[in-house]
Amino acid sequence: MLAPRHGILLPALALSFLAACGGGGGDDPAEDAGPTADAQTPDLSFTEDGGADAAVPPDMGGPIDTPADFRQAFVETTCAAFFDCPSRQTYAFSLYLGGYASAEECADSLLVSLLLTSALPGDEAVAAGRVTFDGEAAAECLQETRERLCDELALRPRDPACDRVFEGLREEGESCLSDECVEGQGCAGVAGECYGTCAPSAPSPCGACSDGQWCDSTSGTCQEPRTAGEACPFRTACAEGLFCDAPSSGLGTCLVPGSRAQGESCFDTPACDAGLLCDSSTERCVPYFVVSEGMACGDLPVAQACAPHLICYEPPGEDVGTCEPPRLEGETCADTIADCGVGLYCDGTTDECAPVEPFGSACTNSRECESVYCDDATNQCGPLPTCDLP
Questions:
Q1: Pairing mode, strands 231-232 and 303-306
Q2: Cα 230 to Cα 340: distance, rounded to the nearest angstrom
Q3: Helix axes 67-84, 110-117, angle to 10 degrees
Q4: CA distance 289 to 277
Q5: In Å, how far are 75, 91, 158, 347, 374 from 322, measured between CA atoms?
Q6: pTM of the entire structure?
Q7: What is the pLDDT of residues 316-369, one digit of tens each?
Q8: How far apart are CA 234 and CA 148, in angstroms?
Q9: How many whole angstroms separate alpha carbon 159 and alpha carbon 372?
Q10: How far apart, in whole angstroms, are the C-alpha atoms of residue 125 and residue 262?
Q11: Which of 184 and 159 is assigned the larger pLDDT?
Q12: What is the pLDDT of residues 56-97, one digit of tens each?
């Protein structure tokens, strides 16, 4: 697993976060909660900060001026939601955003910023005429994102405003980065290059369906929404107010969100009642707890994640850990686990937390660098590379 404060950043990872937070389409994957248990232990609930009363999004206060402002506000919104609504967050969020002392420290992290915004166009894309930017849609998208991240069942629909923030202007055959192509075109990667080329998106096998209908790609026909209890292939195939509880491949069933109780069958977490998530190993709804310092975490009978400001420290070779503050310089860490505090990384040679290195320092991995980038050509820490389009 990639640590919150170190590791090589992958654009696909950023895209997966954006998809979950209003910057991409698709259904949320089922959570892997680990083994189930019949016993409930309410005393494990974390209640110090956040919770339902804290799940109130801030007023974004009007249009966002620039893409750079939007990127920063997106990071701040995501970090704030993680701290204010810890029991609503997915395991992925706890991996990548966990361990910071506060939402402000999370938002100030270069790694978090790169993780969440590397797929978003920047000011240079607007200046170069590759995209347009809608500040009013950006403010609306941020508001919806905060509400969605604090949604008890993670079922709040993606706001169309998030699709209007950037409008691509690049035509077929022109070079591009993410979200820079006109409607009907996608940015297809070019081998060995940091950019892609705009090419026609795959057409729908159904053509244009009427409002409310969905496309059955198998038969190539437009279908009416499925009702409760009917088979469905994905979430939008169900009527309004219903959720398609489906496996990763194959058909599921349209049902009312949150209608499955502890121990009942499920494929995806929104099928389960509040306070539960779907254990993908047993396909049953299990309790989920956010726990405090000194309590057990990791591979346990119920899904237990540490409070946002803590990490789940699992000593090398162990499957069960303890919630504790991030490890300090010189303390033991495990190279594949998010252990070290801000400004530190886990040195795989010594298995100890060490300070990140400045520009020009020797490196073998980007996690060692303050800039979060190790140049493969020089094996030195350097500034993040830019992509020059032809």
A1: unpaired
A2: 48
A3: 110
A4: 10
A5: 28, 16, 35, 21, 32
A6: 0.75
A7: 778 788 899 999 999 999 865 678 999 999 998 899 999 999 999 999 989 899
A8: 19
A9: 32
A10: 48
A11: 184
A12: 334 455 689 999 999 999 999 999 988 988 766 665 577 778
Amino acid identity of 322? T
Phi then psi for residue 324, to 5 deg, are: -155, 165
Pairing of strands 196-200, 175-176: antiparallel
Residue with tokens 């070019």: 190
The C-alpha atoms of residue 234 and residue 252 are separated, in whole angstroms, by 8
The Cβ-side half-sphere exposure at 271, using a 13 Å CA radius, reads 31
Residue 304, both tokens: 């237990």
The span from the CA of 113 to the CA of 153, in Å, is 26
Best CA proximity match to 290, nearest among 126, 43, 44: 44
Residue 359 token pair: 């520009």
Residue type, 240: E
Residue 258 near residue 273, CB atoms below 8 Å: yes
Of 164, 287, 158, 159, residue with least CA distance to 235: 158
Q: Calculate the alpha carbon distances from 281 to 233, 268, 273 in Å.
A: 21, 11, 18
